[in-house]
Design goal:
993 residues, seven-stranded mixed β-sheet, seven-stranded parallel β-sheet
Amino acid sequence: MGIRTEKAESALENQIIEYLQTIGYEYVRPSEMKLSYNKKYALDEERLFKFIKSTQPLAYNNHRLESKEGRQKFLNNLNSALIRDGVAHVLKEGVKMYPTGVIFFYHALDKKRPSSFDEFNSNIFSVTNQLTYSEANPGLELDICVFINGLPIITMELKSRMSSTEWTYKDAEEQYKNDRDPREPLFFFKRCIAHFALDENYVSFTTKLNGTETFFMPFNKGSKDGGSGNPVGSGTMTDYLWKDFLSKETLRSLITQFVYIERSKDKKNKRIKETLIFPRFHQYRVVTRLVDDVEKNGVGGRYLIQHSAGSGKSNSITWLAYRLVEAEREYKNIFDSVIVVTDRKNLDKQISNNIRNFISVSSNFAHSESSKDLEKLLIDGKKIITTTVQKFPYIIETIGNKMKGKNFAIIIDEAHSSQSGKAAASLSTAISGQYKITDDMDSEDYINAIIEARRMPENASYFAFTATPKAKTIEMFGSVFDLYSMKQAIEEGFILDVLKNYTTYENYYKVYKTVENNPLFESKKAARKIRNYVEGQEFPIRRKAEEMVNHFLQNSASKINGKAKAMVVTSSILRAIEYYFAIKDILESKKSPYKALVAFSGEKEYKGKKVTETILNGFSDKETPDVFKNDEYKFLIVADKYQTGYDEPLLHTMYVDKILNDVKAVQTLSRLNRRCENKIDTCVLDFANKAEDIKNSFQPFYKETKLMEGTDPNRLYELLAELDYLYVYEEDEVDRVIDMFFANKSREFIDPIMDICVERYKDLDEEKQVEFKSGVKSFIRTYNFLSAILPIGQVEWTKKSIFFELLVHRLPTPRDDSGLNEILESVDLESYRLAKQDELSIVLENKDGETSTKQPGTARPFEPEMESLDVIIANFNDIFGNIDWNDKDNVARQIKELPEMVAKDERIKNAIKNSDKENIKIEYENVLADVIRSIMKDNMELFLQFTSNFQFKKWLSDSVFNEIMKKQKSFEEKENSFELAAEDDQNFGLDSN
């Protein structure tokens, strides 16, 4: 049969079956399967009993499986086990039944026991097509079903894009939803490990059929450009499903090392909820690739895994931990213990629960609640240990010397947080067992011991998972070993695009002076101080809170079938408390049934009383995530809490009133990206950030993040030369301090030397003080990082690092900004206005991200611009206030046309070709004035403001000039209008659309 004589769907069906036959599957024709398939119990009786008889004759005879009565009783017992435990558990563990337990799958492949391979080969892998599975509807047929020893494990519905119907895998999904009844025994929950919908280009799967509510997940490799789908290859794009995942060895691995039942208790009805966990393609790929590499290359590797937020990293970590425990090399286990490190307690709990659900022997797993627990568990050789990174600084001295000779796998979730600076050094020291001090060691020995301890130990392998790798993370662990990009996750629909419905707001404030005199302040810092002050006033907070509540009630409350929730991200604990009371009061005034919760760490004084999250919410802060799940709670107001690692799929809307940069922006906004039933979109209202800044934060992590420039170790020598030149310390002083430090001398011996250094520092002028202190901090930070990754340590660096650690906190701050507090007593808020800016979809560019490390160096103090309070207030109001235009649209249009009008002038063209920037600016001012006069008839308002409002004239002049200079290389070819930044339009009361 060929493509000319077969129907397209049948051709795909036959292609799969023919390949499976080549790798040892038994093909059971539909006519034959009709005779052996038991529709009541959903199994192939002939191959089931054939397997038991040939491999376990004693059990076959004891259960009287030659008789009809014996078979009926046996099938009843087996059916009960399948319903209770699921087919994966039955295949993995067998079934205990009287008088003899029965094995249903020989899956052990033990090189030390060669007969295990013969046992594995005795398994019967079979496949059939057009399976008539239903007693109630005998005409219904399933395209493909895969069996192991007569028990169905995988079903498939196929569609072909080559058919006249042009059906795709999406139609196969609909067939499962509408035509495959989950009440049929074959489609009972847990009776198969997965149900696949596929065509020639795409694959998806589900582990539970639930009618029209069935949730399918993508199962694709990803395209060559990092997007959804599959790459073009030498065969059918989706043939990896049957060629790779249906191989006998892979199915064995899936059943015994991946598939498990996740159980969680519903706190409302106290029922146990079960979820069958089956790996997605990228999860299986990363785990198997990592284990294969370790088994090939042994201990000591460093691996960076960049998997998008919301991609199921906790499950990937669970599977990897389990597989690494089993990993062998030369017939020996590679690792004594696997340590799973998280940077957040809620992540720690989540991963711990996953591992408990997965492993069958609880004694192999333990969670470390304290550093003492961790020490004991490591020494005792517990196989899998979960803990938080905060534990590691406490274990250096206590267990470092006891770990020598053991091997460890360290799996780190969100590597950039867990594996930075001293935390990395602490972890390395504890595991390597090399930080050991004895009485016969001199200072040189001590130095070398620390160098060896700080370096990545040879007896540990590191597996670092992150969605947002920073430059130093890539330096620490190497380039990305495995990638599941944000781009692929979004395009596949596995996570939602949180930038799609993004609305920005602008805040306009007007302040007035409350004192008669006109004192001088440093202008930029004063402006920041004023803005922070006015944003904390009751009216702006109340106004923004009203906008949030009204938006939620009118737009978001109905989302996710009325289950949508919102997070309010604030800039501080005090601001979170203020928003909590404002939102709570607004909801009560509207007689809304909805409630708000607040989340922050520690305690804060508010209106004369100390408050905590527990006090305000009325229950323990540990209960906040669970209580928030209740229907009445719709707002979670946070201050640096639940912005990373928090997984609540019902979060739909986020209200942001905090500056978010780089990784923080991605982590925070990604709280919204989890999919769930009926969740089709997300929404962000941002009161603090520009859309362009958010885009720039996300772009580096959209595809693979690559390191463009790493840390140059030679810069440390250059930096030391600069610090030495400032003569704050002498080399013999450094040596004496180091000797006393390792001799554990009391402070009275070290303090005099340090005091002399501090006095020399004070004698420096302000510029040199800034240079020295910033350089010392930069050296310490860079040394802590480099010492963990460089193969050869430097004695001088280590000595200076210890010395600088003792010195830096004694150095006074070069400049005192306390005088700025006086400005808050000199101003007050006159008016406030909140204006919606853009409702847009932020689109990321289809390219890999780039990142570079910040090289060590010293800072230089800037010359403060001192201005009077009157000028500072005027400038602030010009920037954050507004002009009441009569014809705002016309003004906005004219301003947007100005750059093109000015750029077309021959005087500007000649100046750009023949002059430097200063001369261009001189000519530009003349041309701009002429252009403004030329449009006077069309817009007298613009002309009057330009000629009478100095601040507006300066803003307009600078904005237009910057646009022209930015595009000078191509301005002659440009015929379209230049776009001015939307924020600048709004600064003077202009809309951007």
